[in-house]
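Long-time lurker, first post. I've been practising inverse folding by hand and with some scripts of my own, and I keep getting stuck on stretches where the structure tokens seem ambiguous. Below is the full token string for one chain I'm working on. Before anyone asks, I'm not after the true native sequence, just a reasonable design that respects the backbone. If someone could post their per-position residues I'd love to compare against what I wrote down in my notebook.
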């Protein structure tokens, strides 16, 4: 530890000199900044304040993603995951060490003047975009057709005809402006100007607070300023913890109904051919577009999370370095971190690891990393557990100017503490380390370094054994995942002759668990490590009918579907919280063998656009018959939070089937479904029944079957 102490003194001295130099430059740089041509970016993502775990996308290693945004500052936003319940963390507001630099705390563009890469310095504003276009197609134009190497593409907003494009350096920006100026695309003509970087959201919010006469932040609207740090983090991370579990389930059931009700209305508007059927369903199902099951409760209510990402920062009440969660997002103007020992969704073993890592941080003498000034070392602690007893930790730091010798001592200190010191009692089985400074111009990141113990953790799901890499996605509630997968399998309705497409398959949990019910399983996953896990898991569990592709689903889907010719095909999609790329939906629509599709959404409100695209009328873009929602099952995997999984069964449109059902004369295979349709009472409670078993709503549906043909043809031509 002696080397660490010496290095700490050297770092403090160097940073004081750097800050003095920066303070002398700020005024001049600020004036130059104001004169730069172009508009200020308007499309800062709306902050949701919730930590999100990405499925390598769905489970986003959200603290690391916010770390990336703080270095490549596009607003430093925290992204919400539909199912994530944990907040990010850093330092205390207003807490600075000597030499930290007041200039950086008042200049919202200070991050652009550091000797660190940020694509905000090389941004353009692209105007004249077509009225209807997809971001995916725009990216393809920029990076494949025109070979411009765009780093980020950010639309200005819904129905706005401009976007912000960021590049990795000035030559790339200059070339892009030359190529795009006057370029014609989809009958639209582009115009291009340079764009200013977006303001650092934390500095901006701090300035807004300082300008208020009452000196209160926006959080005061909810009375947060009067709450203790413990109360604030409880409200932020587990906002439903004060309710009984039955009350939590009731709220989530209502939320699911609200989402599906709106989806039904949007679907009827988008596809006139379905308008009458949607109405027919709604009058029988309390406004719902399809059958909706009661929400399925989690088998485990407290301590269910098997993965959490804890931030390292300062507790504003104690002034000490703390390992925990942020009480609010960076964009909301917060860097303070609160302890987590009282939170209901975190298991006791994980809390013990946090306490022991906090000891390591405090005894090191190195400060937590500040996302505002980019000083400090300690960033984040990731903890993963499993039902098999595995306990994996990942320590993340900012290397600053630490020498290799000091970094080696730091790694050794962590290992010794959890294998020989007081931390040995918690039973850690794997230790990983990551020195993360910032995104490089090439987008490369330092890989995880294995320090000690197992290279993977092992988990059991529905009697199957799964190997999980440190960064790979796994549902954060293992017992809840078992319930979820059982319902997914039931809705898929597989048989020995069918093929299962497992889209966004992760480590292969769904495919392996359902492999015995079907002839073949074809999976696709973006993250190579997860694909290796999926293949290993198939072999370990004796699954010989499963094949997994590496890459983006939209790029691999064609090859997967080529193996499904003339076979009954069922797809299960479990995508990132933002949903599927539109090209994946288009590919699924074109697969004529695909009869059923089970969509698993951790953020159904964000996935509604996918639901709508599955049900759009046939067109040049959306070829193949559309899908209709048949049944939805909400499953609670995240007690004490507002989040839940929503599983929806979509079936390929079958006009004869639904006509017979509406007439009250279903085919034998649809009898079971027909019996579950709520009946209508005569008179005031609903349309009157006709002798043939249909009703007035059905009659109108059949009489007006072609009422939307003209609009549908117009949509198809578009």
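-- Answer (accepted) --
I ran through it position by position. Result:
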């Amino acid at each position: 530890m002696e080397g660490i102490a010496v290095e700490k003194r050297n770092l403090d001295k160097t940073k004081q000199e750097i800050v003095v130099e920066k303070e002398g430059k700020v005024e001049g740089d600020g004036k130059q900044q104001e004169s730069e041509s172009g508009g200020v970016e308007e499309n800062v993502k709306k902050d949701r304040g919730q930590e999100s775990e990405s499925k390598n996308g769905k489970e986003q290693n959200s603290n690391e993603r916010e770390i990336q945004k703080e270095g490549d500052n596009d607003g430093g936003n925290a992204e919400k995951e539909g199912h994530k319940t944990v907040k990010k963390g850093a330092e205390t507001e207003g807490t600075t060490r000597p030499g930290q630099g007041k200039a950086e705390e008042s200049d919202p563009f200070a991050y652009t003047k550091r000797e660190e890469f940020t694509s905000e310095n090389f941004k353009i504003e692209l105007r004249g975009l077509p009225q209807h276009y997809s971001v995916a197609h725009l990216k393809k134009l920029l990076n494949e057709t025109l070979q411009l190497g765009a780093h980020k593409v950010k639309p200005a907003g819904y129905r706005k005809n401009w976007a912000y494009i960021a590049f990795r350096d000035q030559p790339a920006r200059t070339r892009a402006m030359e190529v795009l100026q006057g370029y014609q695309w989809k009958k639209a003509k582009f115009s291009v100007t340079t764009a200013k970087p977006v303001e650092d959201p934390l500095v901006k919010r701090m300035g807004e607070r300082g300008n208020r006469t009452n000196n209160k932040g926006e959080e005061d609207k909810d009375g947060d300023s009067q709450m203790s740090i413990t109360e604030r983090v409880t409200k932020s991370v587990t906002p439903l913890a004060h309710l009984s579990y039955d009350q939590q389930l009731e709220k989530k059931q209502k939320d699911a109904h609200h989402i599906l009700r709106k989806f039904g209305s949007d679907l009827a508007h988008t596809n006139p051919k379905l308008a009458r059927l949607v109405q027919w369903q709604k009058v029988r199902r309390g406004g719902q577009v399809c059958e909706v099951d009661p929400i399925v409760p989690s088998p485990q209510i407290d301590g269910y999370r098997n993965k959490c990402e804890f931030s390292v920062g300062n507790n504003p009440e104690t002034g000490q370095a703390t390992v925990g969660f942020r009480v609010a997002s960076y964009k909301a103007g917060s860097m303070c971190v609160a302890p987590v020992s009282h939170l209901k969704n975190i298991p006791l073993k994980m809390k013990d690891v946090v306490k022991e890592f906090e000891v390591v941080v405090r005894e090191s003498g190195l400060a937590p990393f500040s996302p505002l000034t980019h000083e400090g070392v300690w960033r984040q602690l990731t903890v993963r557990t499993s039902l098999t007893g595995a306990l994996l930790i990942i320590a993340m730091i900012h290397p600053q100017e630490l020498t290799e010798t000091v970094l080696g001592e730091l790694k050794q200190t962590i290992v010794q503490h959890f294998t020989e010191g007081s931390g040995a009692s918690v039973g850690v089985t794997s230790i990983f380390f990551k020195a993360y400074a910032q995104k490089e111009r090439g987008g490369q990141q330092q890989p995880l370094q294995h320090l000690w113990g197992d290279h993977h953790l092992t988990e059991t799901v529905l009697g199957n054994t799964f190997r999980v890499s440190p960064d790979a996605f796994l549902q954060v509630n293992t017992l809840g995942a078992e319930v979820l997968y059982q319902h997914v399998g039931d809705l898929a309705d597989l048989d020995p002759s069918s093929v299962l497409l497992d889209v966004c398959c992760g480590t292969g949990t769904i495919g392996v668990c359902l492999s015995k019910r079907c002839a073949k399983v074809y999976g696709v996953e973006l993250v190579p490590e997860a694909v290796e896990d999926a293949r290993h898991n198939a072999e370990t569990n004796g699954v010989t009918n499963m094949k997994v592709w590496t890459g983006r689903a939209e790029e691999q889907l064609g090859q997967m579907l080529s193996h499904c010719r003339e076979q009954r095909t069922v797809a299960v999609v479990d995508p990132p919280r933002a949903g599927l790329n539109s090209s994946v939906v288009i590919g699924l629509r074109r697969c004529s063998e695909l009869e059923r599709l089970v969509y698993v959404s951790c953020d159904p409100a964000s996935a509604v656009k996918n639901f709508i695209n599955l049900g759009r009328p046939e067109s040049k873009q959306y070829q193949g018959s559309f899908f209709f929602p048949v049944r939805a099952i909400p499953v609670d995997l995240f007690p004490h939070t507002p989040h839940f999984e929503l599983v929806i069964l979509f079936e390929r449109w079958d006009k004869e089937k639904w006509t017979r059902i509406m007439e009250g004369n279903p085919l034998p295979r649809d009898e079971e479904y027909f019996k579950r349709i709520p009946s209508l009472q005569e008179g005031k409670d609903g349309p009157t029944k006709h002798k043939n078993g249909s009703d007035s709503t059905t009659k109108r549906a059949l009489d007006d079957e072609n009422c939307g043909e003209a609009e549908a043809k117009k949509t198809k031509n578009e």
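A couple of notes from the structure itself: The chain has a mean pLDDT of 81. The first strand starts at residue 123 and ends at 127. Happy to go over any region you disagree with.
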